[in-house]
Amino acid sequence: MTTPARPAADRGYAICTSGRSGSNLLCQYLSSTGLLGHPLEYFNAAGRRMFGLADYPDEPDKQVDCIRTIGATRNGIYGVKIFPGQLDVIAKSIRWSERLPGLRFVRLARRDLLGQAISWSRALQTGQWQSTVPARAPAVYDADQIHQCLRAAASDDARWDVFFARNGVEPAAITYEELVADPQAAVDRVASLFGLCGVACIAPDKVHLAVQRDAMTEEWRARFLAERRYLDAIDEL
Question: Model pTM?
């Protein structure tokens, strides 16, 4: 796989998040600035190959090299998006925090956990993980699957909370709701990690993703709550 002829980036950030949190949209906003790296799921080889990098490597150490080259802008800042399950995999062979110099952390979460679970369930069925990708199949309401996604999202969020608490790290925190309401403010929060607040501006013509939430989301929410609302027990994670 060819990479740009430039020195490897020496500072950057990881967006620590869970599925269906708006992370693809945030990544595109950040990349559009031309100053805050090109964050993607670089520890997801199958995903990178699906989206155009046919010879993307499976080895985590080589994926780190990709983060510092194709994941970087020319000012030497890289970006990467990562889920807990991906960290579980790479931790078996590399110490990523040592391989990625000047690593900062961004925490992206979604306050509307049920909305996140509904979005996750729909994407699992349709294969439409981004608004620019056509659906491969229709989505059918499945309360059990939504409940499973709800627990998975909550578990991933809790794992990141423990990770940051155990390491004494205060990440730059962004919520999905804040991102949708004011994208530039969310970008500024990341830019402030590098002294670029007010300089790294979103380029709207480079942002092609859109929010996928629609009327079906609210229909499924109402049905799920009608069927599963039960205040006399608490879920185990």
Answer: 0.93
